[in-house]
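[09:14] KT: can someone run the structure on this one? pasting the chain below
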Amino acid sequence: MKFGGMLSDLLRSLFKRPVTEQYPFVKRKPPERLRGELQYDPTNCSGCMLCMKDCPADALELIVIDRKAKKFVMRYHADRCTYCAQCVSSCRFKCLSMSNEQYELAALTKEPFTVHYGNESDIRAILEAVSPAGAEPADKA
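[09:31] RB: done, structure tokens below
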């Protein structure tokens, strides 16, 4: 490139606004079809486990407490999830959805990536049965 070409590029760029975004401080509205964190609505769930069977990443576990009373706990492993939304499309009762608002999912440890959905008392009972005494994993109702 010749010196004249570089000088003209330099002069043009002096009068342009920067194209970088101030991301953590100024956030843009996410796209409507963005596939973020999985959301689970236990009121519609029948316990058919199709979502769990169709998940290619094996990121979902549906723990059945009482099928007649419709008591289920969904264990979601966000670190395994590929965000393909196959579980959402295969759910017949529309109890799964992908949030377009919750997409910033980075963490320093692995514990926040295992999320439990369901009734809080059911989640506590499942976690007490599985975990050793005194340990309290993260849960989400």
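[09:33] KT: thanks! Helices lie at 3-14, 50-54, 86-90, 120-130.
[09:34] RB: yep, looked fine to me
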